[in-house]
Amino acid sequence: MYNMDRLFGEVAERGHVCVGLDTAVDYIPERERRRAVSDAQAALIFNRAIIDATADTAACFKVQIACYEEMGLAGLETYAETLRYIRGKGRLVIADIKRGDIADTALRYAKAHFDGDFEADFVTLSPYMGMDSIEPWLSWADSKGKGAFVLMRTSNRGMRDFEYLELNGKETGDRTRRVYDAVGEKLSALAAAKKGKSGYGAFGAVVGCTGRGEDAAVRKRYGSLFFLIPGYGAQGGGAGDAAALLKDGNGGIVNASRSILKAWTGTLSPDGASNAKDADNAFAAEAARRAAVNMRDDIRAALAGLKG
Amino acid sequence: MYNMDRLFGEVAERGHVCVGLDTAVDYIPERERRRAVSDAQAALIFNRAIIDATADTAACFKVQIACYEEMGLAGLETYAETLRYIRGKGRLVIADIKRGDIADTALRYAKAHFDGDFEADFVTLSPYMGMDSIEPWLSWADSKGKGAFVLMRTSNRGMRDFEYLELNGKETGDRTRRVYDAVGEKLSALAAAKKGKSGYGAFGAVVGCTGRGEDAAVRKRYGSLFFLIPGYGAQGGGAGDAAALLKDGNGGIVNASRSILKAWTGTLSPDGASNAKDADNAFAAEAARRAAVNMRDDIRAALAGLKG
Q1: What pLDDT shows up at residue A143?
Q2: Residue-level pLDDT at A127
Q3: pLDDT per residue over A70-84, tens digit each?
Q4: Mapping DSSP to helix (H, G, I), strand (E, B) and coil, where does residue A246 land?
Q5: Cα A150 from Cα A183, distance rounded (Å)
Q6: Which CATH number belongs to the domain containing residue A117 in this structure?
Q7: Which of A103, A159, A167 sits opposite B156 (nearest CB)?
Q8: Percent of chain A having pLDDT more than 90?
Q9: Could you say which of A73, A127, A156 has the minimum Cβ distance to residue B130?
Q10: Cross-strand partners of B155
Q11: Which of A91, A224, B142, B191 is the most buried (most CB within 10 A)?
């Protein structure tokens, strides 16, 4: 069974929220940082609290490795422990590593992130160098069910620089074909070759919610690709934007990081005063849980609105 | 002073060879692996021997992080120690990490690889998400002279999938503009904004030697970009192909990994028998030194041929 099928099941059961553990040190309550022997340890203890609090609500978790690499070797130990903790709870985790290198090197990366210290259920990949930087990862779909989300059309300002460039030659339906279409077409071919019970391929795509009105067309055109959807919340996308990228109420997960991890900084105590200064991990975790529940419900409501 | 200017000086003094420390475990002589307490330790001891033997000949070193990630946390310690060893000798090292992520995340990656445990002099970057995944790294050019090589036109089979796609609209001189041209144009603008004494920008490009006859035109079109040139040796490129990408005898480094690190496996003992089975690191290092010297001289000869 592909992990993508398991993820499809988690979305059906729990909703579309992917909790992004982009744990920057300043996301952690100050008193918890002081209590820990290192920032790397503080990040691990914080992550465990967030994971415990959001596990019922989250379809899956995504761990941004840059936040841990920044802390050096100790940070990467926390990264490894965070993955292990999530998987130990029987839950799915995406290693947000955006790797993209060829042949032998891709095989080495795949072994690094699908086995051993850094084992994850999914990775994110970057397609620039071509499909020989993607295909070597696929053998792990058969052996261990592993999956990947390949960058296709992201949600950042810079997406216009290369992803949006118009290609020469054939048109795609009613509009010009762009670089991201070329990526989507190759990924659709992969999905057809490794299609799971859910109807989605073992490898999906990163497609951001841009709110630009073209998202429903992208969803329709690449129907076999399960989407990892960034851009929600702190990055500007709303529930309606995300819903436009979801097919029949499934087919994608919506990532949010800051708006969940930092929810505690905007949380008021019962007497109306902001008690962020006195916050601890339990306080942060409860705020994160509520933020994740609200996000899940907002997306469900938006989907119901699309149907209605 | 930008590291790119220092690299220009190293090329002028030592030639164009970049020794790629893509140290796979089976590149290490068997008796050395047995002697070490772990493969990660064996890789570190092997790397030191290769670095010592080739330092006079190499313009710089490149360390492929995938080979170390594959060994987990212990492998990343070897990665960190290898960078430290090269920099401790006063020599330049490129972290071949091909990172590409946006804004905050790019800043975190930059801190991870330009400071702390994993500090390198240069990194490799992937441009797919756009220039907001490249620009955050630039602040380190001013503060510590750091540099980068951004994937532009690589030398693998899959380069045709996306890098070579023809763009709609304006033509570039006598030929169609491709995705890699869009990358090259953006990088040239960066190079103009951060130009060093050598005439090259602080950030350069990865341009593979393909032997396809178009390399001289690429060299001419992107004159302000210092090139990191893969594809030599085991990947099929020859000295003439590499020379076509070098301007006035400088302006690029040519990476070789397997053909240097594994030179010992094809080396004969004085009595004519292959003694790869009895090889140790000293034997491998001497073979690597000779391979690097031959490569340096081959490229110099090819450059002299171009001038003649």
Answers
A1: 96
A2: 98
A3: 999 999 999 999 999
A4: coil
A5: 9
A6: 3.20.20.70
A7: A103
A8: 84
A9: A156
A10: none
A11: B191
pLDDT of residue A276: 67
Q: Per-residue pLDDT averaged across A59-71, rounded?
A: 98
pTM of the model: 0.96
- ipTM surpassing 0.90: yes
Q: Is the pLDDT of residue A211 over 80?
A: no
Q: What is the mean pLDDT of residues A265-271?
A: 69
Contact B73 A76 (CB under 8 A): yes
B98 is a catalytic site residue = yes
**Confidence (pLDDT) at B278:** 80
Q: How many independent structural domains does chain A possess?
A: 1
Q: Which residues contact B181 (CB under 8 A, 6 or more apart)?
A: B167, B172, B221
Q: Which residue of B has its CA nearest to A78?
A: B73
